[in-house]
What does this fold into?
Amino acid sequence: MNQKERLNLIISTLQKEKSLNLKEIISLTKTSRDTARRDIVTLTENNLVQRTYGGVALLESFKEIDSFIERSSHKSREKFLLAKKASELIAENQLVYLDVSTTVSLIPQNIEKHKLNLIITNSIDIADQLLRYSNCQCRLLGGNLDKDKRCVVGTKPLNELEDYNFDISFLGVAGFDENGVYYAYEEDLDLKRKIRQQSKKIILLIDSTKIGESHNFHVFDFEDIDVVIVSAPLPISLLKVLEKNKVQVININGKALD
It folds into this structure.
């Protein structure tokens, strides 16, 4: 089966199944992992499919974020290095917010032991990591627990944020392109914007799969963010927009753009 035949087979299958993971594509096309990945890249570059966690989906299909635990299984050195760089930006005695994110959840194990910050979070996993690996005080926002996202949700945590003026807040993203910052769920909108309102500095951790991607809900414009930590080069057009808005870019694989 040549590449054209494989691509047609993948597209026709997606029209029925809506999404396929890498293992399913390998089985479908009877090719190696490397060949399947090259086919995914070809389909993506030609705007025929949407990249997802571990596979592809039709462009018209709903872009739903995998559950937190499923996404956590994809933790990589890339995310670890993003979190390590982020931890270096935390000064002693700062009031810090860590938002629910598989990348942000790696920050606690990288915080230096001598730092005794007060850290607030809505994530039960981040709270657990803070207790295990840091000497920081940890405070978990109150409210209802979401089983899949493993975080506190509802109006109560939103109201509690009123009590804090954070020196620095760290957030992940679902998408990041020239138009701004995106998240997956409608209930994210008010919480993320409230975090922005209560924070002196907003820092985003962005792995390579989020760069150049949009998502369901546009939440932040560039004027709302202060620093982005990325793990791959950004398109020149995006860099120019960030520079115009005085957003600091830290690339863990290269120089920072001030």
Q: What stands out?
A: The chain has a mean pLDDT of 88. The CA atoms of residues 78 and 196 lie 26 Å apart. The chain has two domains: 3-61, 70-257. The longest strand covers residues 202-206.
